[in-house]
Amino acid sequence: KIPRPKNSFIFYLQDKTPSFLKINPNINRREVSREVGKMWRNETEEVKKYYAEKARIELENHKLK
């Protein structure tokens, strides 16, 4: 089964998690997701558009499979 394509937030989460864990090494994944989610909600439209474009490309590639 082909996995579902990632959405824009998942791409953002993947980009931000390593640096977030460097700063907070003892935090669990649930907390990381919660904190990165707060960061996502405060991001500019420009940043969100960047990740939305990555998600759109992923979706297009997914449709070809």
Automatic annotation (TrEMBL):
Q: DNA-binding residues per UniProt?
A: 2-65
InterPro entries of this UniProt entry?
Answer: HMG_box_dom (IPR009071), HMG_box_dom_sf (IPR036910), SOX/SOX-like_TF (IPR051356)
Q: What SUPFAM superfamilies has UniProt attached to this entry?
A: HMG-box (SSF47095)
List the CDD domains hit by this protein, alphabetically: HMG-box_ROX1-like (cd01389)
Q: Give every HMG box domain span.
A: 2-65
Q: Which GO terms describe its cellular component?
A: nucleus
Key words, A-Z: DNA-binding, Nucleus
Q: Which GO terms describe its molecular function?
A: DNA-binding transcription factor activity, RNA polymerase II-specific; RNA polymerase II cis-regulatory region sequence-specific DNA binding
Q: What PANTHER family does the entry give?
A: FI18025P1
Name it: Mating-type protein MAT1-2
Organism listed in the record = Anaeromyces robustus
Show the taxonomic lineage: Eukaryota, Fungi, Fungi incertae sedis, Chytridiomycota, Chytridiomycota incertae sedis
